[in-house]
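User: I'm writing a tutorial on reading structure tokens. Could you give me a worked example: one chain, its sequence, then its tokens, then a sentence or two explaining what the tokens reveal?
Assistant: Sure. Here is the example chain.
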Amino acid sequence: MFSTILEQVVNGIVTGSVYAIVAVGMTMIFGVLRAINFAHGEYYMLGTFGAWFAIDYLGLSYEASIVVGVLSTIVIAYVVGRFVMQRMVGAPAEAGVLATLGIALVLQNTVILVFGGGYKFFSGGYIEPVSILGFSLAEQRILILVVTLLVFIGLELMVAYSRMGKAMRAVSQNVECCEVVGIDVSQVVLRTFILGAALAALSGVLTAPVNVSVYGGMGELITFKTLPIIIMGGLGNVRGTFFAAMILGIAESLVATYVGLQFRDTVGFATLILMLMWRPYGLFSTQARF
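And here are its predicted structure tokens:
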């Protein structure tokens, strides 16, 4: 029994790592724009499709497909950020909701129109099992864990020491003061948005070999899974997002094992409802953004 529980906890940590990379981008965007990006999961989907296209149609290796998937998503995110997200600075929250929902529909249906609505097989990745401390994990799952740690360490260093990170912190605290002292808020929003989209794409490319299949609606579920994570972690709180993602990943793994696989996707929504009822500002302080 203990061995089974420990194995599910490990699987949950891997799942939480996937959620964490996606959710941290969404919470960073919220921090500077004060708007939830309901199209965030679509960048996860775009990165996956970019990598799949690079492998199946261009004949590239999985390593090269990661670069293609992330770079193609960055290009699309730049266009969206330049013409839509920058215009959301200072706009009502309702405008951001409607705009990002519209973007999600456009991106999702464009991919379905171009590549079809069926499931595609993702053939890349490292699927060989590795035995660690009595547990058998695919190499791809280990890669996800390592990349997640590197991403969050990199974000901590960037936010603490880089010029962009300091500007992001300033904008998250007071937009008006930033404009007074000459910080280009629209550029900070654009760069943060592109960074968040790139992280979502990276998560999609890393997860694709584990999920095996790729389809046009895959980003929608990811978006709704990240919502309870960023609320639980405290909107705009990067560290809180990491721990909340791990909690949700472990909870989903345990529920799938001991309650039923069909109830796995309900864990996030149940968590969201409970958090809104009990602690709507999240488990971690919203004052500790970035």
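What the tokens reveal: The first helix runs from residue 2 to 33. The chain has a mean pLDDT of 87.
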